[in-house]
Design goal:
Three copies of one chain form a homotrimer. The first copy, chain A, is an alpha/beta fold. Helices cover 14% and strands 29% of the residues of chain A. Chain A has four helices and 38 strands. In chain A, strand 37 and strand 38 form a beta hairpin.
Chain lengths: 336, 336, 336
């Protein structure tokens, strides 16, 4: 099939301005696109590239103001970024693997669904259940008793400790570790005694876990990642944490033990949450924040300790004016 | 064996209030426990669950005030959390593996102790020495010349570079990397020349290393983790760091090169220690702190740059009052 | 060959003070060195050890003031740290491995250069190209279509996703993940749709990637790490980031999506860079800084939000004086 603005408009429900027949051979960022490629403008910061890009087709928003000297054909859509996601999914060739490579270790008690891929040197333990079309890449580890739902993907060197449960359509990137022991020790004189961590991790459907992210098993009960939540790389989720659905959390954030977080939060990178707090839904948390107590639904917070975004901005300005403040007080004292 | 309050009281040295014969089938958190389960109250924040929990037995402290309408049998002990640790250890079935799975790579010069487990696709290099009952999980890597003491556990995808030494009863969780090169480069014009890192890592007895934690080898000599120290996930320990005994360090903390830390410190998550500092013993360091100099034994510090906990609390309050301060100065100026 | 001050002086272009014939058997840090070992003084903080060390030879700078009672032979050089690097490289036995261990998985379409090492349980995908003397350690993963230049080293459990390109003389430490999906999702009602990440990662020559560091593939186009850049452990490089040449970045730092960073920057640990910013060259960035906008070449910045190093120092002092400030204002008000 030739991919043209007409095809794209029909896939995205968009409208065409310009040549509807130009053939598209690939996707590219607007500042790098060449002739025959399609690009997009979702962020107004990049709008000025519209006149200089060599892209043949641009996916733009309904309110995009086309410059006079535009060469590219436009496809106007309601949400260019969402349409891009859809197009990339529709037009990128899928590389679904299947079959079982050798040598791999598949315990004889494991139940393996139809269409499953198991790469070389992967390890599938006792009593494991893999749903249909699950892809276990080479060198991944699936511990005893683990269950993985249909269409989930486990990349090389991902590790799932014994007894954990993974939903459908999940992606576990390389180096992620699901179900390592929670960090629990009881003081015993000068030493610490390990608290056996007998709980598990439950990851619901449609969750993506970034590279080298760690989700610890519960002391008792479950550590839970809710449906549709997306975790970036190098994140720490401690034992007995409960994360609701559709949260998006950027890299290197950490959530300490037993904290409960609601749904649909957007959390920046390198944030730290204290343990045992109850945090709302639909909040925005700025990068590098330190969250030491619960916040209500819809809060917009940042800083260390965290405060609302407006106060933080005002405080940041005033802190830079501290030298001036000290000077003014000296002046006032002199005048007395 | 039936597990009853009587068994539990005899194991923990506790005293019983209520039915001594009820049979226990599992452990659970107090807010999730069902009939036939035992739970505990160590943190007063959870005491109010005592009347609503369905748990049949509760492990509580000597000073716990039993509410009037309590259904559960109580077992009173001096330290409920420590008793829980002990009970979980005593009553949870152990899953000690043994034997050598195939294919695995065990160099013919390696010395393998009695009762050792080596999982499939594990790699045991030249001249490795594994003590008795060491468990090397599938896909773990034990480099040339590594020594591991009795009863230590190396989880899947843990990596131990050549020449490092691990003590007895240690646990290395998945994705931990022991002995990668320290970060040392000498400027050479615009470029950097690598300083070969010819030292090793020594991990003493009873140390636990969290998932995806990294401990770099020394430039020369040793990076050392002292007896009984517990490291959470995603921690960075740089080359030539020396950590004393019985330290407890939460996730995502980093310690820069050549810093020496004493014993029995409790260090929060996402803390950073500068390099080449000498830090005391029995300190408490708050989460996200930045430590750029040494502190005396017993310090309680937090913040960036770190300060004592009382000053930090006062400063945090005063910073929020900065807008007010600026207003007051304006008022004072006007009145003159 | 006997290693003596004469050999060392001739290798480093240094000059000898003392016995030129003493035989050297190893390298050590100055506070730990024994007779027959060579050590160095690059940092004046360690100069006082010169009189107490048992080292037989000391590598020191041209301006080092030799104490009266010195036992060690001195070798004076322009830059002791650089000379140390050179000596360690020249005199440390290399452990270059070669050959292909079994079982490993090498796709029949892969092109394998001369002198390559492929360890047991390593996975080499379809169409991979490995240059001369590349060392793929056991259990490493090299995805379909990956290219790796001459003399590069891939340590155990390093993962390179499909299509990424690695230059010559690179080192990828254990647990590093190159080319996992960038963190891109388009909101779709309450849910998020994954944006397929169809770009790659390009790592230029002479780059070192620390243990458990993650470099995400681009949404479209490339994520790029420039020639000679050195990344420490547990660093996050997001999709479409571009890092120039000869940057040195300490552990646990994160760089958010599409940020462009110039050359020869020195960046501390646990720093966070916001996305979509353009950052200069030859800057110094203090540990734990939060960088939310671009900075000019040669900036020296620190803090959260970041500010120049002098302002930060002044602000840190003044913040501690806040209680005093509030008191003075109270006094002023009373006097009116």
């Amino acid at each position: 099939m030739k991919i043209t603005p007409e095809v794209i408009a029909s896939l995205t429900g968009g409208s065409i301005e310009g040549n509807p027949a130009v053939e598209i051979k690939g996707f590219a960022k607007i500042e790098e696109a060449k002739e025959g490629e399609i690009s997009f403008i979702a962020n107004p910061k990049y709008a000025h590239y519209a006149t200089t890009t060599e892209a043949s087709v641009l996916l733009v928003g309904d309110d995009f103001e086309a410059p006079a000297n535009l060469r590219a054909t436009l496809v106007r859509v309601a949400d260019p970024y969402a349409s891009l996601a859809m197009l990339l999914s529709a037009l990128t060739p899928k590389s679904r693997k299947s079959g079982i490579e050798s040598p791999s270790h598949v315990d004889e008690t494991a139940e393996i669904g139809e269409g499953v891929y198991i790469g070389a040197f992967a390890y599938i333990g006792r009593g494991v259940k893999l749903g249909r079309n699950v892809q276990i890449y080479p060198q991944a580890y699936v511990g005893d008793g683990v269950e993985i739902g249909d269409d989930s993907i486990v990349r090389p060197h991902a590790t799932i400790y014994e007894g954990c449960r993974i939903g459908e359509r999940c992606i576990l990137h390389s180096g992620s570790v699901i179900g390592a022991d929670g960090f629990g020790f009881a003081p015993d004189g000068d030493e610490y005694k390990k608290i056996p961590q007998v709980g598990i991790v439950v990851i619901e459907d449609d969750v993506e876990i970034g590279a080298n992210t760690t989700v610890d098993r519960a002391t008792m009960g479950e550590t839970r990642i809710g449906k549709g939540t997306k975790l970036d790389n190098l994140i720490q989720i401690a034992h007995n944490v409960s994360l609701g659905s559709n949260n998006v959390i950027a890299a290197q954030t950490g959530i300490a033990g037993s904290t409960k977080i609601g749904d649909s939060n957007r959390i920046g990178g390198q944030v730290g949450f204290a343990g045992h707090i109850k945090f709302g839904s639909r909040c925005e948390v700025g990068a590098q924040s330190g969250i030491n107590k619960g916040y209500r639904d819809g809060s917009r917070i940042i800083g260390y300790p965290a405060t609302d975004i407006e106060t933080f901005a005002r405080m940041s300005v005033l802190q830079r004016r501290l030298p001036e403040l000290f000077k003014e007080i000296d002046n006032l004292k002199k005048k007395q």
